[in-house]
Amino acid sequence: MKSPIFTLFFLAFSIVSIAQVAGIADTTIYDVAEERPFPLFKSCLATAHPGWSKDSVLRCSEIQLLAMMSSNMRYPLEARDQNIQGTVVLSFVVEPTNGRVSNIVLLKDIGGGCGQEAIRVLKALDEVGLRWSPAMRGGQPIRVRQSIPLRFKLQEALPYYVAASGDTVYTSLDTEPMFKGGGDSLIQYVFNRLKYPKVWADSCSTGVIEMALLVLPNGETRVENILDFNNIGLDFQWEAMQLANRMAGKWESATFQGQRVTATSPLRVVFKSDASGCKNANSIFDQTMILADEGSSLLAAEKPEEAIQKWTEALTLQPDNCELLYYRGTTLLNLNRREAACQDYNRIKAVMGITWFEDIRRLVCGW
After folding, report:
1. E strand or H helix at 352
2. pTM recorded for the entire structure
3. Nearest CA to 269 among 301, 248, 291, 238?
4. What CATH number matches the domain at 4-156, 3.30.2420.10, 1.10.10.10, 3.10.20.30, 3.40.50.300?
5. pLDDT in tens, 283-326
6. Domain 160-274 is in which class?
7. What b/e string do you get for 192-228 counting C-beta neighbours within 10 Å, with b at 16 or more?
8. CB atoms within 10 A of CB 172
């Protein structure tokens, strides 16, 4: 039996409210509110969509909330093992003063840890910065109790996904793709075959490019995705992709249930110029990588503050190293230092134009 995954269905919002009049707390529970509360996603605000009605904004926000919750939920192991499925209902209060949620209550549970998981995700979204537009009554913001029914449903996990290229890419494997000769041979191949763009030789540009290398059953290779962490440019990306494409026939393809299948393997390449005037730039790059590795080791040893310090030292040498910005930003976010994390996340967006974690960045930092 393959590991199951879950599908999360957003069924409805139901509303009762606790009003707050003239600054004095009112514990009266209302059956309706004139204007319902909704989560504030910049992509759904009316200012971004001239002509949208309030209902359109509300619906967009509900869909975004569903996407965020579903992408962050983990189907509890106990519920999987016991084949537990069904609907969990949460209620919570939307506070008019700060747009946060409070008083989360599990109205209906199905067991197996599903209720606790739903609560965890709702709290996590609030902690990383998701805010709500308050309910309104008589032109005044009020405290309102919102309820969310969520249905947990087990289904068989597919061992593959279909990529944008149309390739069926397997993620459940018996054996991984392997470079013929092993890891050391791969390192030697990249070192000897990667070409530094000639027109940039005197630029002393240094950087890391990471690719998701697609290895097909017949041994052909091509690049599915590419990340230019140092933003060194299209010429460098082109050379990296050319190297990957020249690897056809040099890989053992992955296998699943006795058959050769298409799968991906990460491939990182490093660019440093051999030009005589680039020794200092190369030395700075090497120092940056040493500090980065030290930071990763400290984080693995559960010393996040010391890891952040190492990455900060590295970023003084290469301020726009997006891989380091991501490591530091994510660690800061895990320490609930959201503002500092967003500075790193938004810097990545500014440097690269895109991020590989855009849904998280938008949730934490806004559009």
Report:
1. helix 338-352
2. 0.62
3. 238
4. 3.30.2420.10
5. 999 999 999 999 999 999 999 999 999 999 999 999 999 999 99
6. alpha beta
7. eebebbeebeebbbbbbbbbbbbbbeebebbbbebbb
8. 15
